[in-house]
Amino acid sequence: MGFATNMLRRLGSVLRESDTEALTILKGQHRAAEALFMRIERQKRPSGKARLFRQLASDLTMHAIIEERHFYPAVRASQTEELVSESLEEHRRLKRLITELDRLEGKGAFDDKLAALKKQIHHHAREEEEARLFPLCHSVLDADQREAIGQQMIATMVDLQQKENPGFFGHPKPLSQT
Length: 178
Hints:
Layout: H1 3-12, H2 22-42, H3 46-75, H4 81-104, H5 110-131, H6 133-140, H7 143-164
Helix pairs in contact: 1-2, 2-3, 2-5, 2-7, 3-4, 3-7, 4-5
């Protein structure tokens, strides 16, 4: 099963099949990441923890790609410019942290770095969803525009799986999902 298909399947546990609106997709990805963090934290076997981390890293990569390609350009307006720039900077920090975690896999500092990643992801999701960017989206984009962006994001996830094989930060192609 492909990466995008796996991500869409995991999102299915959070979203209904008809939920293709951009904000709903992004919120679903945030919830799916939170669920993966919990599974990683409960995992006792290092190999299981590594597998779940690779899944998380792949999901976060796809999330960043679709946000940066479709969502941020669409919501960039005078009232959101600072928030979009802040979110892009958060993405850069998250990408670096994921790459560091990949290098630490199986080492003692891994759990501490993973906790730092979880904290950053939680902050990023809450800032976007509740405090700032997502609420402003309703004044920048109407429902039809948000739906169209959601459709573009889904198409990109499928396209990346079929053509580009995005893998995750630090890896040239997707790791197998089990």
